[in-house]
Amino acid sequence: MNELRGPLIALLLFAQSLCAAATTDPATDAVRKFLSRQATQPGREVQIEVQPAPARLPHCENPRPFLPGKGQQLRGLVTVGVRCGADGRVRYLQAKISIIGDYWVSARRIEAGTRIDADMLRRTRGDLSNLPRGAVLEREQIVGQIASRPLNAGTVLQEQQLKPVPLVLRRQPVTVEARGQGFRIAREGIALEEGALGEKIRVRLADRRQIFAVVSGPGQAQVNF
């Protein structure tokens, strides 16, 4: 009898696997494949967990997944619609998308107003869907920026914590160039606030008038008509 126990157990396990395969929800499989295609990112690992549809729902023939609404980010918890059968009846499934990749954190404390260099950053790896909103993932977008607030070691750098290097400083003399169709005029003034490239600042001209101009370079601003 003991000699038959091993083959019988193996046969039972094989039968159970066939049963599980036969009862696999096609909608769940379709959603998993759909999200795998949609969420693929070069150099990053995508992990997808789909919550199975309730057993009370009817079998979904020819499932056709889609993303409901607009602007849904493909990370973290997402909702996926599935059209079933010839009549296109819709059901919704929940899924969790984990995107495993590299990102950068501060290697040490960085004081506010410090220009960030590459040696102030440390690469780490984890689930990008767990990062705070506005996290900056590329080192090139961090190096050269100014810390707008103190950053402790290990901080995930976010857009609101960084600002570009100002090309015009407050109370600095600036050349304001006014351009229009067929003319170009340059006047001198004093910047009343600092600004980076493309930012609008207030400038006081020699006659005490104040105007708004867009920073166009170091010590330069521009007004277009």
TrEMBL record:
Keywords: Bacterial flagellum biogenesis, Periplasm, Signal. Its main location: periplasm. The keyword Signal applies. Residues 1-22 form the signal peptide. Residues 101-163 form the SAF domain. It is found in: Periplasm. Pfam families: ChapFlgA, ChapFlgA_N. It comes from the Bacteria. InterPro entries: Flagellar_FlgA (IPR039246), FlgA_N (IPR041231), SAF (IPR013974), SAF_FlgA (IPR017585). GO terms for biological process: bacterial-type flagellum assembly. GO terms for cellular component: periplasmic space. Belongs to the FlgA family. Involved in the assembly process of the P-ring formation. It may associate with FlgF on the rod constituting a structure essential for the P-ring assembly or may act as a modulator protein for the P-ring assembly. This is Flagella basal body P-ring formation protein FlgA. The lineage of its organism: Bacteria, Pseudomonadati, Pseudomonadota, Gammaproteobacteria, Cellvibrionales.
